[in-house]
Design a protein that fits this description.
The protein is mainly α. The chain has four helices and no strands. Helix 1 runs antiparallel to helix 2, helix 2 runs antiparallel to helix 3 and helix 3 runs antiparallel to helix 4. The longest helix is centred in the N-terminal third of the chain and has 59 residues. The chain starts with a helix and ends in a 14-residue tail after the last helix.
Length: 155
Amino acid sequence: MPDARSDLTRTAESLHRGMKAAADAMGILLVDGFHFLALFAIGATTVWSAITAFIGMLGKGRAELSDILLLFIYLEIGAMVGIYFKTTKLPVRYLIYIAMTALGRVLIEIGGAEHKTGKDLLIVAGAILVLSFAVLVLRFASYKDDPSDRPGYGA
């Protein structure tokens, strides 16, 4: 009788491991499928938006500094998507770079508007400074994990 019970236990454990492995594989497939679908959608939308912005600049016959910064934002989003495709890691620093560039655009708009005060300029410049310190902290914190933070990388 003890042999039958241990056989039943082994069979149940084996069945459990098989079910868990199948469920894990299905979960990984679904999550990865969603990531790839979302990344393709984000990448395509970024390219579409960048092309539309560029055509708008051509239509105006000139590109203002805020337009060029917008193209840099699209470039940074594209780079972030590309890095995620290659490494499956989301580079948080790129999000901060995007925020800094967007705040630079705001700073240009504030400087161009005559009804804005110096206080607005200081607030946006202070936000850019805080984000710069955040990038610095992230670079030092990820020095061991991220080879791109090491001197001479890619040179």
